Amino acid sequence: MPFPELVLASHNAGKLKELQAMLGDRVRLRSVGEFSHVEPEETGLSFVENAILKARNASRLSGLPALADDSGLAVDFLGGAPGIYSARYADGLGDAANNAKLLAALKDVPDAERGAQFVCCLALVRHADDPLPILCEGLWHGRILHEARGEHGFGYDPLFWVEERQCSSAELSPADKNQLSHRAIAMQLLKHRLGL
Ligand SMILES: O=P(O)(O)OP(=O)(O)OP(=O)(O)OC[C@H]1O[C@@H](n2cnc3c(O)ncnc32)[C@H](O)[C@@H]1O
Ligand SMILES: [Mg+2]
């Protein structure tokens, strides 16, 4: 196993939980929070740029190989917003405020125009200056509900309708979300690349 221990370049507890569950016990994820509580500025214009930037920063702080997840929700009616700005959509006020802002932006928009995709870009760097990061991407298609449903997950999960299961992603069990999600698709690819 090339990476028995990886630093996860994330301060999001929901991601850590999901990614560790997907990786199983052959790779131990350590939070970058063990090394610093300062979050890097996400200055990239794409998911991949931000994922690489976060991975390099965590690797520099820890001296260890690092995995980053940059993800978000791209809503068709909003031209792909909030996209890379998903975490900060309501100016840093958190998940509930982000969800309220999204519902307001889609007020009176009919179901047929409420298509959206969750995007996940994973970047793994072997060291802070790695010239060839491993990059894997996953997309999960759904649509935005008119009101929140479900208690599981995090972020926009209560507003994301999963057609194949006829429920919101916050109504899926954690195990089911970890089979279907954008993050699950990207992680499958990464595991394949790592021979896991
Ligand atoms: O940057 P780190 O520290 O990893 O944590 P973050 O929460 O800021 O993460 P991102 O910058 O990648 O922003 C991702 C946002 O997209 C949303 N998001 C991503 N994956 C999600 C998921 O599986 N379910 C619900 N919302 C998700 C949620 O609002 C996240 O905060
Ligand atoms: Mg972030």
From TrEMBL:
One GO cellular component term: cytosol
NCBIfam families on file: RdgB/HAM1 family non-canonical purine NTP pyrophosphatase (TIGR00042)
Protein's name according to its UniProt entry: dITP/XTP pyrophosphatase
EC number: 3.6.1.66
Source organism of the structure: Phytopseudomonas punonensis
Residues reported in the UniProt entry to bind substrate: S10, H11, N12, A13, G14, K15, S71, F154, G155, Y156, D157, K177, H182, R183
Self-association state and partner proteins as the record states: Homodimer.
Gene3D superfamilies according to UniProt: 3.90.950.10
